[in-house]
């Protein structure tokens, strides 16, 4: 499902511009939305999910304008949404919780509903835990329940907001892999402030900063934002005064620094190949305040 956003703005009370004139075109497949906390990502996700009305602008999802009542209804039938904080009923089992959500989504045929729930519990690797109460689930397992509920109606668009926050490394990898597999025949919009999640799953992304779109394109294009600006320096002296320190690792009697700077920050600094994180940080330094 293609997403087309034109001149989108959201102004809250107090004239706070959470989204400020965003133009964005999201194709089929996995797409990353990157930005720091407070950049406007969640506001944009809630607008796309039909939970929040924009102040102005246009959003077309699969040919439906969600700024109109008819468009919102049409899109919500083909959309799955995993919010940053999914509320669950801790005394329900995973199977019963999904059954309850399926009924709310209009899946009334009992046999078809049970079959779909069973399939999804296997997809998210929770089949053997289907009849355990949710109060005993880890954070990663609850996120997987969240993905299952978002997939109940087999949506053409899946929106996930900060899905790996708080997960341990193994669960983060499992979750990222699952999202990539789900993107085969649908659009998956991944909103996160964790650069590594985008680096490992998305070929294309957009970056928000203070409600404004400051980048959209391929991950390689974002990496190039830091070309010629990344340096390694090992020293036993004080920390470099020039440039932005990205990493500092003790090494023998000194410290090995990774820095972003327009020019060599020290006579002994050596150029390094940029990563997506370097490109993102370089972009943020250049973004207008």
UniProtKB/TrEMBL annotation:
SMART domains, from UniProt? AAA
Tell me which residues make up the ABC transporter domain: 3-235
Please tell me whether the keyword Translocase is annotated for this protein. no
Annotated GO molecular function terms are:
ATP binding; ATP hydrolysis activity
CDD domains with a match to the protein in the record: ABC_drug_resistance_like
Enumerate the Pfam families for this protein: ABC_tran
Question: Keywords on this record?
Answer: ATP-binding, Nucleotide-binding, Transport
Protein family according to the UniProt entry: Belongs to the ABC transporter superfamily.
This one is known as: ABC transporter ATP-binding protein
């Amino acid at each position: 499902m293609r997403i087309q956003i034109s001149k989108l703005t959201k102004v809250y009370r107090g004239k706070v511009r959470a989204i400020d004139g965003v133009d964005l075109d999201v194709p089929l497949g996995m797409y990353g939305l990157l930005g720091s906390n407070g950049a406007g990502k969640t506001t944009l996700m809630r607008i796309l999910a039909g939970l929040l009305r924009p102040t102005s602008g246009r959003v077309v999802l699969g040919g439906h304008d969600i700024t109109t009542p008819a468009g919102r209804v049409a899109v919500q039938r083909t959309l799955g949404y995993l919010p940053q904080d999914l509320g669950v009923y801790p005394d329900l089992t995973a199977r019963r919780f999904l059954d309850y959500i399926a009924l709310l989504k209009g899946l009334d045929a009992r046999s078809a509903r049970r079959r779909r729930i069973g399939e999804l519990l296997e997809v998210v690797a929770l089949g053997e835990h289907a009849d355990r109460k949710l109060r005993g689930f880890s954070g990663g397992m609850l996120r997987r329940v969240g993905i299952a509920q978002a997939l109940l109606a087999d949506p053409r668009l899946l929106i996930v907001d900060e899905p790996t926050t708080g997960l341990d490394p193994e669960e983060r990898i499992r979750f990222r892999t699952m999202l990539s597999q789900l993107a085969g025949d649908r659009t998956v919009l991944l909103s996160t402030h964790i650069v590594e999640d985008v680096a490992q799953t998305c070929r294309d992304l957009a970056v928000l900063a203070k409600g404004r779109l400051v980048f959209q394109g391929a991950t390689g294009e974002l990496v190039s934002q830091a070309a010629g600006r990344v340096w390694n320096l090992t020293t036993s002296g004080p920390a470099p005064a020039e440039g932005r320190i990205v990493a500092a690792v003790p090494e023998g009697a000194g410290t090995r620094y990774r820095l972003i700077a327009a020019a060599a920050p020290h006579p002994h600094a050596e150029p390094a190949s940029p990563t997506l994180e370097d490109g993102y940080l370089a972009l943020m330094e250049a973004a207008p305040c």
